[in-house]
Amino acid sequence: MRTPYLIARRLVQFMVLMLFFGTAHWGWELAGAPLLRGDLSASDFAGVVPMADPFATLQLFLTGHLLATRVVVGAALVLLFYGLLGGRVFCSWVCPINPVTDLAAWTRRRLGIEGRMMHLSRTLRFWLLGLGLGLSALSGVAAFEWISPIGMLHRAVIFGAGAGWIAIVGIFLFDLLFVPHGWCGHLCPLGAFYSLVGRVAQVRIGFDAKTCTHCGECTIICPEPHVLNLKRAAEAGMVASGDCTNCGRCIPVCPEGTLSFAWRGQCEPAPPAPPAAPAGRNQ
Amino acid sequence: MAGAERSRRDFFQRLARGAGGAVLGGSVWAYLLQEQAHATPFALRPPGALDEEDFLATCIKCGQCVVDCPYDTLDLAKVGDPVPIGTPHFVPRTTPCFMCPDIPCVKACPTGALDPGLTDIAQAEMGIAVLVDHENCLSWRGLRCEICHRDCPLTNTAITVEPHPRKLSKHAVFVPVVHSDACTGCGVCEKSCPLPEPAIKVLPPALAKGKLGEHYRFGWTTENAITQEFDPAEVAPEDIGSRLQESMDYLNEGLTP
């Protein structure tokens, strides 16, 4: 099987939404408490473990309001979780927009749509992250949460859909026709936030420089191909960039088995290349 | 030197482009937020909700209050609803708040947008019922409807029935009167009004209430009397009998032929 992680990701994405939906509509419980109450902005697991979107919580905080302990603890727990498992692992394993943009990328490949209608920098999302935080402080409301298509989508699934689908279709078309990986790879401030978390995250894609043949298969499938800078990967022994979403797509496509999930501590930088042999002595 | 000049020019160009983009993008973004925040002044919030501005700032749109509401009263505003996106609200005519004594929605809120200090549901201020349409209210039309009064969870406190003279008729009408200090805005009255369109509607407190000028004094009520030391017993004239007669004479002056 060539796509084990893809199937696992779809299962996790579906199950997370299903747990929210089942708790909201069918009264799923664990030990007498709602199983997973809320949505991806903030939730409560079995009435014991609070969780909260750390970026959303930061925006609320910047509006100048003192927040209740539960949301702060929840945000800290989620931050710790993604700090351990890889920052943007949220993007590829949990976020409900991911199947939408993956579908756009898949359709692009199937229809042979190439190129882009405009150039967007991949650092734009970090500027939007800063702008979102600044606007939260200035406007007095959580700026990104109020326009977030991620929020629109998971609320639509869990609590019922309004006109929010239009935004989702918009993102699909933007990714399909305008800029490949346009939303997740260039614009999304939440992805940018988790990208910063990913810089210190513990689970990474390990890179074994000894076996790599530089065939480039991994960069073709990767939604953030700049993270697979093979020179840097060889130096670090892993994909070090926080932009990597740990989606695992590169792992099964690599014919040499060079890439695999690994703990940051396990990844060993490749030994420095041996001095080049003098010319004229090649066997 | 020329290279340094070019890179400096390049730097300032990029700076200007970035600043321009931020101002443009930020303005559009801020405009969207403003539009959303003022989507409607009519949204009714769950019990314990902070003042609208603070509520909008602290609500994380998680819907935990919605999940824990046993009557499915609450709903998160959807895109296109006339209520700021993703915030919990309720429409009394569809499902009012039934004022659970344990207030599960407030307990479910993780951020404090619903004030955990609210422990007595009768102190909630979700809105204020207003009998907006006297022309169609059956009680005002002279029928003994009063369904809103009887269904009110705080009946005889939040809604009383008061007699009101009926033009030249010897009979009075009996009309429901809402007392804003006791009304929680639960909306049961609006739900129970038998008209096709309710004559009594719940409005957010900010819309329902007027405000009295602080300089106002009602001279005819004792607590507002300007002469604070005035005590009728002390200054009553001793010869009050003759003064009474005097005043009677004054009133009867000119009556005798």
Question: Can you describe this structure?
Answer:
The complex is a heterodimer of chains A (283) and B (257). Chain A is built from 13 helices and seven strands. Chain A has 283 residues and is mainly alpha-helical. Chain A folds into two domains: 4-195, no CATH class; 202-266, Alpha-Beta Plaits. Chain A has a three-stranded antiparallel beta sheet with strand order 3-4-5. A two-stranded antiparallel sheet of chain A has the order 1-2. Helices cover 33% and strands 10% of the residues of chain B. Chain B contains nine helices and six strands. Chain B has helices at residues 2-37, 52-58, 64-68, 104-108, 147-151, 188-192, 205-208, 232-235, 240-252, and strands at 75-76, 88-89, 128-131, 159-165, 172-178, 200-203. Chain B starts with a helix and ends in a 5-residue tail after the last helix. The model of chain B has no long low-confidence stretch (mean pLDDT 87).
Largest sheet of chain B: 2 strands, antiparallel
CATH topology label of the largest domain in chain B: Alpha-Beta Plaits
The percent range for strand residues of chain A is 5-15%
DSSP, total strands of chain A:
7
Q: Structural class, from helix and strand content of chain B?
A: alpha+beta
Order of helices and strands of chain A: HEEEEEHHHHHHHHHEHHHE
What is the gyration radius of chain B calculated from CA atoms? Answer: 30 Å
Distance between the termini of chain B: 121 Å
- Supply Rg of chain A: 21 Å
Element-level helix/strand string of chain B = HHHEEHEHEEHEHHH
Known CATH architecture of the largest domain in chain B? 2-Layer Sandwich
Which regions of chain B contain 5 or more consecutive residues with pLDDT less than 50? none
Shape of chain A: globular
Number of individual domains of chain A: 2
Task: Tell me how many strands of chain B there are.
Answer: 6
Most extensive interface: A-B, 53 and 41 residues
- Strand % of chain B is 5-15%
Give the mean pLDDT of chain A: 88
- The coarse silhouette of chain B is elongated
| Helix content, binned percent of chain B | 25-40%
Please report the number of helical segments of chain B.
Answer: 9
